[in-house]
Amino acid sequence: MNFKKKRLNKALEDKIYRVKLVHSKKGWLAVGLTFITLFSATMLSQKTVDASAVNNVAIANSTTSSSVQLWNNVTNNEIHKANRGLANGTAWKTAKAVKGVDGETYLLVGVNEYADAKQMDLSDETSSQNLTGVLRTSSSKSIIRLYTNPLAENGAQLITNRGLAKNTDWKTDIKVVANGETYYRVATNEWVKASDAYLVGESSRSNKAYTKNAPDENTNSNSNSSNNNGGSTPEPVQQSTITTKYVDEDGNEVADAKTEKANKGEKYTANSITVDGYTLDGESSQTIDSVSGDATLTFKYTKDSEPVE
């Protein structure tokens, strides 16, 4: 190992820090120093850039903390931790993806500020990660809906005959992102949406295996420049809350409403669900062409006639 590699490894070893969240005009940021991280330096002259990460949006999803650590100078020997991070669950604009000298893929979110792609979910990616963790279901719904494998040919399908109780803990071993929607596996073919549950403990997580829109697979750049600027400061994406309701002729709910976040200015589509004993009235999907604020979409159902005995 040459002197530069030794210096890089030394600079990254045994750094234990504390992080706190503060609110700024740009949103919630983790300010301070960071966490224990050990790297083995791999000297790479080629920086890989992918069009799927250019002018995209990514959600922060830390493996071990309430925020995703930011890094500076990731493509040269001066790589080091920045003094802030991105709060979990927040959305941030990305300028591009690069391969760091440590072999990791990073997303550029501000001037020389990068986040590890393992901890950022792009809005259009499809990927899977092995992990060992524990989920806690949301307390805001009486029943947490389950779905079939999101990576199956027909996508995630609602399981109508069972669900999870609210505010309960479940082991999970795989995290999947399908077209930007995150799911966790809780049984062989039963998955829960990240919008309905959250990690309360995690001991390990693998690299992502991408099947669509990987941030480091399309375009190669051989530039050796150490100027990694790509924006001003990390810029949060404005989001709106879209609520989808399922009601009968009298407006009574026949299934739990679904609430999701959507980026302002983007298209949002909601699909109907199958409700035992009821038939859908109208179209099976509803679309907002450009999200401009909080909205509610409602699917109406008619109760099926009962046979006369």
Automatic annotation (TrEMBL):
Keywords: Repeat. Pfam families: MucBP (PF06458), SlpA (PF03217). Residues 208-289 are annotated as: Disordered. Residues 255-267 have a biased composition (Basic and acidic residues). The keyword Repeat applies. Residues 218-233 have a biased composition (Low complexity). InterPro entries: MucBP_dom, SlpA_C_lactobacillus. This is Uncharacterized protein. Residues 241-302 form the MucBP domain. Gene3D superfamilies: Putative peptidoglycan bound protein (lpxtg motif). Residues 159-195 form the S-layer protein C-terminal domain. Residues 235-244 have a biased composition (Polar residues). The keyword Repeat applies. Transmembrane segments: none annotated.
